[in-house]
Write a structure and sequence with these properties.
The protein has about 300 residues and is an alpha/beta fold. About 40% of the residues lie in helices and about 15% in strands. The protein has a 7-stranded mixed sheet with strand order 3-2-1-4-5-7-6, sandwiched between helices. The structure holds S-adenosylmethionine (SAM).
């Protein structure tokens, strides 16, 4: 097991909402380093069933090691997108229907901290950013292919970046000379685009750009609302799904999807999303943007 670490966010609130019992069946669709999953499994033992999914093979391998000590729970792991949750559930349970689903969207510290993955502007690495490195286009390929308008749109929509137009211009000018290959190449473009006097003090000037390109490369918001709806339909009557999000686009998708599900026999547990306590934020600053929404299946509409 490696030294990698990730502090599970809003664990107590997630546990309360999921209402786990011995013998419950649970899917963690974003397993990461299994911080939440290990705590949840203590609640569903003995006789619990656990399905862990992650599209990042490295995270999945690490999570399996960390969950080796779990006892009294029948554990199954899938290298998959959680959009494929129904297939995974049917493979394990024989049919669709579980007691609890947990989705902790986004990425974890271990992925950010590894410069080889090119997700962060801290430490130079290849401009990759893919969560599933077995497929898809890298950030370098995207940034060297997208039009200036596309880059501007990505930075605006996924990063709320006020300097999107200028950054897009600099990226396109730069790649005419030499393609962007490393995280430092992208940081340099951002620094050239935003004058020093206009840079935010609170966060690194490249934060929004890196977030936006990563979301685009991994299709993190693509049809998210539909994916959440499909996941919720894998619940049994009485089952609960918890979604933890860290980005306004993700939370909006969850809010709209949950509203629509209310016409289909589901009920949101909270009117407004729960947020971390001040005490949690002071211990783990990365939790500050978290929003928790939960929905329960009340009936199955035919
Ligand atoms: C915030 S981390 C989860 C951390 C985890 N709850 C813990 O306590 O260790 C999110 C994880 O979800 C995975 N992930 C993100 N989107 C995914 C998707 N569409 N399908 C499968 N896994 C995904 C990421 O690779 C990452 O490992």
């Amino acid at each position: 097991m490696s030294e990698l670490s990730h502090v599970p966010v809003m664990l107590v609130e997630s546990m309360e909402a999921l209402n786990l019992r011995p013998g419950s069946s649970l899917v963690d669709g974003t397993l990461g380093l299994a911080g939440h999953a290990r705590a949840f499994c203590q609640e569903i033992a003995p006789d619990g069933k656990f399905i862990g999914i992650d599209w990042d093979e490295a995270m999945l391998a690490e999570a399996k090691l960390r969950m080796a000590e779990v006892q009294g729970v029948d554990c199954h792991f899938f290298h998959a997108d959680y959009r494929d949750i129904a297939r995974c559930v049917v493979e394990v349970m024989g049919k669709v229907g579980v007691d609890a689903i947990f989705l902790d969207l986004g990425l974890n510290n271990a992925q950010i901290a590894d410069p080889k993955r090119g997700i962060s502007f801290v430490g130079e690495g290849p401009l990759d950013m893919r969560m599933d490195r077995s497929r898809g286009e890298t950030a370098s390929q995207g940034l060297n292919r997208w039009t200036e308008r596309e880059i501007e749109r990505i930075l605006t929509v996924f990063g709320d970046e006020n300097w999107a137009k200028k950054i897009a211009q600099v990226v396109v000018e730069t790649r005419k000379e030499s393609p962007l290959k490393t995280t430092q190449d992208l940081v340099d473009c951002v620094m050239r685009a935003i004058p020093p006097s206009k840079r935010e003090k609170r966060i690194h000037p490249a934060t929004r750009t890196f977030q936006a390109v990563r979301i685009a490369i991994n299709g993190e918001l693509d049809e998210l609302g539909r994916a959440l709806g499909d996941a919720a339909r894998c619940l049994k009557v009485g089952g609960v799904m918890v979604v933890l999000s860290y980005h306004s686009g993700e939370d909006r998708a969850a809010k709209v999807c949950f509203k629509e599900l209310e016409d289909e026999g589901f009920k949101s547990l909270y009117k407004k999303p729960l947020v971390p306590t001040a005490a949690e934020i002071s211990k783990n600053n990365k939790s500050r943007s978290a929003k928790l929404r939960a929905i329960k299946r009340i009936s199955i509409e035919e």
